Structures
1.
Amino acid sequence: MADIAVEAHNLTVSYHHKPVLWDVDFQLPQGSLIGIVGPNGSGKTTLLKSIMGLVQPDSGYVEIFGKPLEQVRARVSYVPQRESVDWDFPISVREVVEMGRYRPGRLLRRLDSTDKAIVRQSIARVGLEAFADQQIAQLSGGQQQRVFIARALAQQADLYLMDEPFAGVDATSERAILQLLAEMKVAGKTVVMVHHDLQTVQEYFDWVLLLNTRLVACGPVSSAFTEDNLRQAYGGQLTILSKVAHLVEEHDFPVRDRSKKQRT
Amino acid sequence: MNTFLSDPNAQAVVAGVMLLGASAGLTGTFTLVRKRALLGDAIAHAMLPGVCLAFLLTGQKNPAWLLLGALVSGWLSLLSMDFIARHSKLKPDTAIAIVLSTFFGLGIVLLTYIQHSGYGDQAGLDKFLFGKAASLTIQDVLVFGWVAAFIVGVVLVFFRAFRMLAFDFDFAAAAGMPVRLLEFVLATITVLVVATGIQAVGVVLMAALLITPAAAARFWTDRLWSMAGLSALLGSTAGLFGVGISALAPAMPTGPWVVVWLSVAAAVSALAAPRRGILARSALRRRNARKMERENVLKAFYQLQEANPLQLTAFSKEDIQERGYFRYSILRKTLARLRRLGLVEVVSQLRWQLTDKGLGESRRVVRLHRLWELYLSHKLGMADDHIHDSAEAIEHLLTPDMEKRLLEELCYPARDPHQSEIPYDDPLRSQNTAL
């Protein structure tokens, strides 16, 4: 396998004491387009958020490029779900994309001409030059998605974690995003993407991660995206697991025995 | 007013309330865009027990101690709300309601206790409920000035970081921003502005000073910078207005007038702001209605011409009315408008006909109607008896650009699903495709 972009080991995450990811282990190769696929509520968004350090796992860890996130944060870019923000917010396309250039160490510094040029290029790459100074509410859903992607491009990362960038997107935006993904792949970038549409998995991705609370399969699309694996991911024969999850929630029971020392 | 402004104490009051209004407007902008509008109200109410405890502990009305008490209890209320929202299944608005009423209830208990236990210096503590803007001292104003300068400084320095936090918390956290620190700073200036503000306008009205300027400013602009600036400006003019009113009519309270001014500003904004305002939107709706009336009458002309075997082109109002089911008053006005636009003319006393320009317009409306019907029927597979009503509305909306795309997609069709001819300006066009 090529160099590893993301490695998760023994990852278990719960929300309000309800486990949403159980003992997930995987390695994702660098330079690929990787789809995370699974039914609703199967933990896809949670997986992205725990890679990004936005939710705390109960156990396990994630490494990016072989290092903890803190050491490589500048090389990772996150594209949240479009619905997660208020698009009526008083802000222009350019101002959103500029956020991709803010860095922790220079929070208070103004953007310099290099930053501004990168912002301009990023907007141009998603084809929104004509909208740069418009308020984001005036854009269509697909254009809003492209604003998010432009912001990620402005971060100039090596690994991109995208949460359903194709959701609610028009044909023009879909083509534009696909074109960008192809360019990013050529440039050696790794893109990990939560994806909903099973029809397009084979067409869009090199690698697929099938998820349903636990890991069903992870590998090249040709070998992992099989009917059998899909049936496992979507088949719902997880009744016992979901019942145990419900018990854990009901009794406020720890998912890990904290009385024992943990090995990470 | 001149004599009033020459009094140094009055000058102090004006300056103080204006500074306070500006810093509240600035801070409130972020409270509003983070959708925490109720927070200011909760913090303000939650400060009462802190003020009372500070008085009980020190036994004096030293403004510094009272401010400290307010700050501490405001902060505690924030932490409690956060704790409840995080560790229970209660929603944030429930947490706000619980904390507001609990803290305020405790505050009133303490206040009543103080009033009935003969503390010599307690008079005026209840001013915290409704404020004492008119009797601000130079010392108070100095405090306001420092707080305002501090808040303006913090907002200027952290503006972009605050905006990022407010717009997309997860992205900011993922990019490694110190989101907890930023939240803490934002919460601190909110508590600070509320703690100073309640001395001027009181616990009950403070929320208005925090939120209303920002809410009014939002109507006028689509950028956070200008929204914050406008909000600060509104807050300070409200201060000026409130102090002015109570100077001119001493029976009038300052704080409540500040709030009244802000409410009027918000109401005027909601009404008169361009694009977002109620008036602008209703004007747009009226323009749309006029356009539909005009185009419907033009269409009626076309249909009358199309239907009559004698090739008549001039019709009476009654013919037109019958054809298009118009209300008589609307038809009369619309005909007059069309005549002014040079689209129709009167040929004899009672007969109206289309001008050449009017004929072109009417053809266009009918064409759009029939194209849209064809599109719905052929491309979307809708039943032929369902498409007419949709076309009645959409025909008025389609732009020339959309028309062109429809024509291309449908390959310049000759007839609509009901077998009516689709009229073109260039007669060759339809003949070509009709063959």
2.
Amino acid sequence: MTTSSGNLAQKAVTETAIKIDNLNKWYGDHHVLKDVSLDISEGEIMVVCGPSGSGKSTLIRSLNHLEEYQEGVVSVFGQPLSRDRQSHKIIHQTMGMVFQNFNLFPHLTVLQNCTLGLTWLRKMSERDADKMAMRLLDRVGIAHLATRYPGQLSGGQQQRVAISRSLAMEPKIMLFDEPTSALDPEMVKEVLDVMIDLAKTGMTMVCVTHEMQFARQVADRVVFMADGEIIEVGPPEQVLVNPQWDRTREFLQHIL
Amino acid sequence: MNNGALNIGVLLGLVWLLPLMSKLIPLRNFVLLSWIGLYPFVGGYLFLGGRFGEELGLVHGAMTCLALAFLVILYANWILSALGKKGLNELFVPLVSRLVERRIHLFSFVAVWLLVALVIALGLSQVSLEPVPIERWGGLFLTFIIAGFAITMAIPVGVILALGRRSKLPVIHWLSMTVIELVRSVPLITVLFMAVTLLPIFLPADMEFNKLTQVLVAVCLFAGAYMAENIRGGLQAIPKGQYEAAATLGLGYLHTMVLIILPQALRMMIPNIMTSFISLLKDTTLVSIIGLFDIMLMARNIANDKDWVGMHTEPLVMISVLFFILCYSMSQYSLNLEKRLKVDR
């Protein structure tokens, strides 16, 4: 069961946002992604879970070319991506990413972190960029911290800044690479709340996460990966509550 | 007259940097860049003297006028903004907005700049300064010129070499690495000697630089190579996540480096960079060996003067005190800078 064609049929009305076709990746001899194929529809919330070392981070990082892969094709809105300029442009125009370690720019204020792309790439005037960034910061509830530097913020606040920074570039797809794994437990919720709000707006989201509660609440489909393979794909109630495969059951027992 | 021009030249250099302290001036990075890019023309004119169109070449003359015009606009804007009015560069906005649709403010600024430069050019063509050949430059002034040039050029040259060394393109990588390793493994004195004696042999016969230019190039290369390794150390300390975050935002190589990586790397390396600057300032005394009359050679010649025969200790003590004051204030400044920048984090 590598793809779930049943679910696709339900979503046939909407466009395919990302189509992953037989992705293969090796680190030397180590086969980290084995024939991974997956379709993600527009507006779909896809949660990727699995034990560490299962290749889920590598998969999500392959989507926006932070990792190279040796075989297979990733298409975004019907456009197959390669390593050329055109593909890079498509990636940057459609995808935003949030990292485990936030990766905010420490020498810039919160506001500057958000406006950087707008003023330098979109050539937006400073005033318009500030206005737009402030709106986004307000949405994630940290507009009052706009003039602080990332080092002065808590982890949860930093991750919310990172989300607004990505959203400022108006992506169609948001990739989350373990956004809450580096956070203290009491800060996880504030980030997840922002993500849930975002999910409600109809954003296409791919989230690598261990937060099963979040998966159950908002995910349209859950992907379970182990050893570089997709073991199971399906709606959360199926994969998380009633898994078909032993490997999934074993993992869920550990995590819940 | 000569001394007057010299003093004005040094003063102008300081005056140019003064607006950096005010928060009223927008784009203060550009003021600093203009100091590096434009001030040398004014300084050169005032130090060298000469008449417009004769000793002073056309390009140099034009650049001097542009530089002075920039300074005038800078100060006018400072005063105007303190009074709460619009800057001088906005003067032509209504006119320009009729002619072009985009970049109105840029065109208006250029128009005002050229106009002011023209007025200054008309004024300058009436003045004539007594020409001073470079060979007659000497003393502390020469030390400052060489050290100042080396210090301002070290960072740009160092950044280019450091980025070149990290480049994935083999030609650029090997070229930068060769320059860095070659220059670093040779003492400064030999670099200076080579610049003065060997360089003219390789250059075409009709191309002749004066000794100071050759020395400046050599010192600049030397400082750049050392700075490159400092900066490379800073670059390596930047986590990979910063590059990835910049890439996912869509920033290209140049944007990533200039906006994200270099500001952090340079900030991290301030103590090392300042150490390099201090040793550079002290190293400039070596130019006395190849016969440039800097403060060191001046001091030694005092002892040969018939009125001051045998005065060896006093000038050297004086120079030591002078260098201590300079170097100590530089290191204090770097501590201060570090403290100020740490507040941000």
